[in-house]
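Case study 2.
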Amino acid sequence: AAILLKLGGYGLIRISPMLNPHPPNLMFPIMVLALWGILMTSSICLRQTDLKALIAYSSVSHMGLVTAAIIVQTPWGLTGAMMLMIAHGLTSSALFALANTNYERTHTRTLLLVRGLQLAFPLMSTWWLLTNLTNMAMPPTINLLGELFIITTLFNWSTPTIIITGIGTLITATYSLYMFLMTQRGSISTQFRLLTPTHTREHLTLTLHLLPLGLLIMKPAIISGLFT
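Prediction:
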């Protein structure tokens, strides 16, 4: 999710200039599929019962934004796509790391069975909250800057796209909160009374994921200066 999925975006960035200017019969079908994919995969996340499947579908939803931005072929679009790919690579990897810490202790990925873990792991619950806020592009993360670049690019390309991207952003916030509430809040199951405490290496792993996201917003030119 963090690397292989982004190789597809990198391939689109390298191949798209060869097709510039894009013929309309090639550009519009891909753009429609990318925008429709944002809504569909985001909606699928709302009905997921498997934690890892939910995280995987959220990655596909974000890559729909990246694909649409690359196809437009403007400096703002390419900059936003690059920023969102880097930001989501770190965010998605952190979410999978968190899901793995849950699985190692509960041996299940079903959301209904792993509720109330905030009572057992309050510090890990803080990591869940920060990562989910990052996933929904809350400020001051680089995810927000990348999505703003992409949404502005798509709005300049076609005004009605603001409706689709707006709904997609709303659904993203909904399933991110849903994932946090389903895993952390509520009463813990009686079968999970004796759980292994969290380790320093797990907290270090999550720190190395989220710290770059916080530092990049202080100097986004490191990754945004490639196309501007």
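The chain has one domain: 3-222.
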